[in-house]
Amino acid sequence: MKRKMCLSVVRVAIISVAAVWGSAVWAGDPNPTMLDQAFTLYRQGNYEGAQQQLIAAYGQKEMDATGYQLQGNIQARQHKWDKALASYEKVLETNPEDPEIRLNMAELHFMQRDFQNAAPLYKEYLNKNPGNPIAAFKVLLCLLLDGKEDEADAWIETTGYRPHQIGYYYFQAAKAFAAGDATAGEYFVVSARQLFAENEIRLLNSLLVEQGWLTESEAGTQGQ
Fold first, then answer.
1. How many domains is the chain partitioned into structurally?
2. What is the 3 state secondary structure string of 81-126?
């Protein structure tokens, strides 16, 4: 059986992992018990132990895509960015169409504020998973923070969010904040708070906090 993991689009400072089961045969024929232990240790936050168990699971065999993906996630948690990216590249060698790996890689670039490389990877993910407002918002942040105002405007037009959609308010807020208009930015954030549930806006607000555009108290993320 094969596990597939993705780094969810989460707060910039945090990587979250979900593991799900598939039905494919292990390409690298690892020891299934040891591999299961590696997953368990990873979920428990024991990254050194997970890495050791992962290596033991494959022994002298070349890792398959699942092994490299777990290794990349471990390395990302350890802030070993270059090694994590190299592991994800190995996954793409055997599964070049995997959008979740591109999302993982985009998140790593974003966390390093490498917006030029992050944006196209988010877009590639969106090609396979259209309608994801967080990934779309990350593209906009990449463009704005990289000083590409014209491309940001074009992206806003491309996504086409309307006033009944949460993306509309946060796209307009980010554009205003990036232009130095905090009053307009806060207006759109307050409007979103009045229209949408707290669990819908929490992550988007946290992304604004991470750029220094909102305080935690203004975003309602204090203590979370």
1. 2
2. HHHHHHHHHHHHHHCCCCHHHHHHHHHHHHHCCCHHHHHHHHHHHH
**In 3-state terms, what secondary structure has residue 52?**
helix
Rounded mean pLDDT, 21-38: 69
What residue spans of 3-80 are helical by DSSP H?
Answer: 32-43, 47-58, 65-77
For the domain that residue 92 is a member of, what is the CATH number?
A: 1.25.40.10
Q: Give dist(CA 70, CA 78) in Å, integer.
A: 12
Rounded Cα distance between 34 and 114, Å, is 35
Per-residue confidence (pLDDT) for residue 48, from 0 to 100: 97
What is the model's pTM?
A: 0.82
